[in-house]
Write a structure and sequence with these properties.
The protein has about 200 residues and is an alpha+beta fold. It folds into two domains: about 1-40; about 65-185, Nuclear Transport Factor 2, Chain: A (Roll), CATH 3.10.450.230. About 45% of the residues lie in helices and about 25% in strands. Strands 1, 2, 3, 4, 5 and 6 form a six-stranded antiparallel beta sheet that branches. The longest helix has about 40 residues, at about 5-40. The radius of gyration is 29 Å and the shape is rod-shaped.
């Protein structure tokens, strides 16, 4: 065997081994990066179950919902709160309370109980025909503008245009209703932060 040829073969094999070692190291680094990225994403991406039928795609993070989701949920909560009759208000109240902040649940329950008593006394119902939504994604609020139709004994007694403000909080990717209240034109731009209630 030729000693020069042997040395050249050793050098070639050493270079090849070095290149393979570098390739394996790069793959290992890439694998660690992917594993770290995957570990960060665990719990960050969630499947959101919605009670309303979604009309648009939306995005919800751990503490923030996008405009489309806020509008979908504002419409759903307005239906639960404003489209009520003596027969439907109790189950709508129970459904709504599942989505309210725990510290606000008692206020919502009391107001809906009072509304249920009033509707039973007058044999009344109300519906809200939504006309416009104004969303402030940064503040996680939606202003709903529409016509509220009030009926007593099946006869429409009034149909005023009203505006309501719905404020939301997203905790752990789940939306909670913080506030739902009637607002006047002056208050629509900046609803008071401490106000709680429905109507």
């Amino acid at each position: 065997m030729d000693a020069d040829q042997y040395k050249q073969d050793i050098k070639a094999l050493t270079k090849r081994t070095d290149r393979l070692t570098h390739a394996v190291l790069l793959q290992a680094i890439a694998l660690v990066c992917v594993a770290l990225w995957g570990a960060r994403m665990v719990g960050a991406v969630r499947t959101i179950l919605m009670p309303a039928a979604p009309q648009k795609t939306f995005w919800v993070t751990d503490d923030h919902a996008d405009q489309a989701y806020l509008e979908e949920m504002a419409g759903y909560f307005a239906w639960l709160i404003l489209d009520v009759s003596a027969e439907s208000i109790d189950w709508k109240k129970e459904t709504l309370l599942k989505y309210t902040l725990p510290e606000e649940a008692a206020a919502f329950r009391t107001r809906m109980d009072l509304e249920a008593d009033r509707l039973r006394k007058i044999n009344g119902s109300s519906t809200f025909a939504l006309r416009q939504l104004r969303t402030d994604e940064k503040a996680q609020t939606v202003t709903l503008v529409g016509t509220e139709h009030v009926r007593v004994n099946g006869v429409e007694t009034s149909a005023p245009q009203k505006s309501y403000s719905a404020a939301f909080v997203v905790i752990g990717g789940r939306i909670h209703l913080k506030r739902f209240e009637e607002v006047s034109d002056e208050k629509q731009a900046n609803p008071p932060p401490a106000a709680v209630g429905m109507r």
